[in-house]
């Protein structure tokens, strides 16, 4: 098997889900056979938004021939990763380069995990929600938009409310009685807004 590990491994993080890795080629005489390529082993050490440790799954990408760089797609935003590089010949892999640590920046969050509308009265509705399963960063706020729907399914004026990230419920007051409302709800990080979930609810007709 090859004798030495690739040197001077560098990682350039391009965005929250993509990084580029560079390395110096090994001297050909240390390959001790036919150079087939380089393998990059990489794995997620932890998410930076939650401290949960979990089973570490190593991923491997093979770059054929004498390439000295490669792309690592499909990374998770706002996470800490490690990687190393090994040279491959027909017999197997050489030693691993020292582990290199890199961090991906924040991305936009996934949609809130649920939106539940309860306690209808003549002029109010109570909203409850769950934070996104994948915050992909530090949540800064939620945005709620809602509008009435009339009997011919036309949408009325849209109202928008910003809600602090640490809230998980809200009582909407001063609504019209016996009216159907459509709600659009999403979360934000510093990078931007995540995908929204929608829900409909009706205020009651009379007490």
UniProtKB/TrEMBL annotation:
Name of the protein described by the UniProt record: NRCAM protein
A GO term from the CC aspect: neuron projection
RNA-binding among keywords: no
Listed transmembrane segments: none
Matches recorded under InterPro entries: FN3_dom, FN3_sf, Ig-like_fold, Neural/epithelial_adhesion
Keywords, in A-Z order: Disulfide bond, Immunoglobulin domain, Repeat
Span of domain Fibronectin type-III: 5-107, 111-207
Organism name: Sylvia atricapilla (blackcap)
């Amino acid at each position: 098997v090859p004798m030495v590990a690739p040197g001077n491994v560098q990682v350039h993080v391009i965005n929250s889900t993509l990084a580029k890795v560079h390395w110096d080629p090994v001297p050909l005489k240390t390959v001790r056979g036919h150079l087939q390529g380089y393998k990059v082993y990489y794995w997620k050490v932890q998410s930076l938004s939650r401290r949960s440790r979990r089973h570490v799954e190593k991923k491997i990408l093979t770059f054929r021939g004498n390439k000295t760089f490669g792309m690592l797609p499909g990374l998770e935003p706002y996470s800490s990763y490690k990687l190393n590089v090994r040279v491959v010949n027909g017999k197997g892999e050489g030693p691993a380069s020292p582990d290199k640590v890199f961090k991906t920046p924040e991305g936009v969050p996934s949609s809130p995990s649920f939106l539940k509308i309860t306690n209808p009265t003549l002029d109010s509705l109570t909203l409850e929600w769950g934070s996104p399963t994948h915050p992909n960063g530090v949540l800064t706020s939620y945005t709620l938009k809602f509008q009435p729907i009339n009997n011919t399914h036309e949408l009325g004026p849209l109202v928008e409310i910003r809600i602090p990230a640490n809230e998980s419920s809200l009582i909407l007051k001063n609504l019209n009685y016996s009216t159907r409302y459509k709600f659009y709800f999403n979360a934000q990080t510093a990078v931007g807004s995540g995908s929204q979930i929608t829900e409909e609810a009706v205020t009651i007709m009379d007490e």
